[in-house]
Give the backbone structure.
Amino acid sequence: MVPEYQDQDSVRGADLTGEIHIDVRAPQSIWVIVCLIGLVAGCGGQADPLPENWGEPQTLFNGHDLQGWEIHGTELWYVEEGDLVCESGRDAEYGYLATEKTFLDFDLTLEFKQEADGNSGVFFRSNLDGIIIDGWQAEVAPPGLFTGGIYESYGRGWLIQPQSDRPDVRMGDWNLLRIRAVADTVTTWLNGVEMVQLVDAEIGEGEGVIALQIHDGGGIKVRWRNIKIVDLNR
């Protein structure tokens, strides 16, 4: 989730109420109508599949140990019954588990289950100095706190939050989060439903690791599994 030291910026949706005038007799206008129908049908719909030529996903978590990951901070990261678990430690500070590899363009899927507070997140194109992180976060939080939104720590704060008609996280149950970053465009899905799509030039210039977060404050426990990524720059 977002660090408490940041103000949460207000988020406004795009105004789609303007009138559209189309000559339905023209062939090109028929094509526009088809595209508009597809656009409307896709809003809030199921996650679109990857093109076949984008390759098979790599498994980032092997279900046995933390091979391929690096712990930042004193919070607890361990494997239990095949799940990756993050839990508040003695210092109740921010903590991160970051990939050793860096990723630019990717399509990431993972499952999470919040057993306690659930205040967490998935950072991407990020870099760490201890527990100070720069980059962007796809929010993972308890119900009502914008899971799937995009937040920039130590920077601009909230960049986009899901609209109120999007489904919320299922507390205490497994949830599927998907994050796709291609150039300057980031899209997130929660349980197969698109939550946000953001085009941002600064994100387009970033590159770095993927990192799971545990928020400060204590009392947090989240399980993770089936963490897989398609590296779109291979």
Notes: Residues 47-231 form a domain with the Jelly Rolls fold (CATH 2.60.120.560). The chain has one domain: 47-231.
